[in-house]
Amino acid sequence: MEQFVSSGQIAGVILVVLAIEIAAASYYFWRRQRTFLLLSFVANGLAGAALVLALRAALQQAGWLFVAIYLLGGLLAHLADVVLRLAATRHAEGVPSTD
């Protein structure tokens, strides 16, 4: 088990489970025409996936640059999720957009 974790193989398992979760939830939100929730959930999943990739890079000693790139990707996905959630809240409250 130690080899499974320290080699970074556990990250691959986590990514597969995360992909299945995102696909199932995306289908659910798409069928119910919940666009903001769908996009927000996907952005949240991408943020999580980026963190798992950063963990894998660190476990495999890929170097600080790869860890930093994955963490930056996670930050960007997280910011996209926050913006989408704020937009969904404004939409639900009936506030007109400024676009």
From TrEMBL:
<keyword id="KW-1133">Transmembrane helix</keyword>
<feature type="transmembrane region" description="Helical">
    <location>
        <begin position="64"/>
        <end position="84"/>
    </location>
</feature>
<keyword id="KW-0812">Transmembrane</keyword>
<feature type="transmembrane region" description="Helical">
    <location>
        <begin position="6"/>
        <end position="29"/>
    </location>
</feature>
<keyword id="KW-0472">Membrane</keyword>
<protein>
    <submittedName>
        <fullName>Uncharacterized protein</fullName>
    </submittedName>
</protein>
<feature type="transmembrane region" description="Helical">
    <location>
        <begin position="36"/>
        <end position="58"/>
    </location>
</feature>
